[in-house]
């Protein structure tokens, strides 16, 4: 069993930065691939970034490449999402999710655990 708690969301102006944190409980955190999804009002949930537990390989959606960086600190059971050069279209609720798979799945249904979400609002 893994419990995930996101933090770090908030209101920021376009061009600004935020760092989201996903803190996990559970002794086997290092064996979970962790991804960040987001969902904006009226839109489908989309994968933003993920990091594999096996290879440490990271995945980024095209819309965030070069602006967002995902990292993990297994000693702290935490995954981070550094978001720079934020745009109004990045406004959404951001969720972290965990899967035992080594693959960074783009489909949310393939993740076993989810956090409650944190709101990110980027003003123009």
Give an overview in words:
The chain contains no helices and 11 strands. The chain has 124 residues and is an all-beta fold. The strands form 2 sheets. Strands 2, 4, 5, 6, 9, 10 and 11 form a 7-stranded mixed sheet that branches. A 4-stranded antiparallel sheet has the order 1-3-8-7, with no helix packed on it.
Q: What's the quick description here?
A:
This protein is mainly β. The chain contains no helices and 11 strands.
What is the topological layout?
Elements: E1 4-7, E2 10-13, E3 18-24, E4 33-39, E5 46-51, E6 58-60, E7 68-73, E8 78-83, E9 92-99, E10 113-114, E11 118-123
Parallel strand pairs: 2-11
Antiparallel strand pairs: 1-3, 3-8, 4-5, 4-9, 5-6, 7-8, 9-10, 9-11
Features:
0% helix; 7-stranded mixed β-sheet; mainly beta
As a whole number of angstroms, the C-alpha radius of gyration is 13 Å
Structural class: mainly beta
Q: What is the end-to-end distance?
A: 40 Å
| Proportion of residues in β-strands | over 45%
DSSP strand count = 11
Query: Averaging pLDDT over every residue, what do you get?
Result: 95
Shape: globular
The largest β sheet comes out as: 7 strands, mixed
> How much helix, percentage-wise, in residues?
under 10%
Order of helices and strands: EEEEEEEEEEE
Poorly predicted runs of 5 or more residues: none
Assembly type of the chains comes to: single chain
- Number of helical segments with 4 or more residues: 0
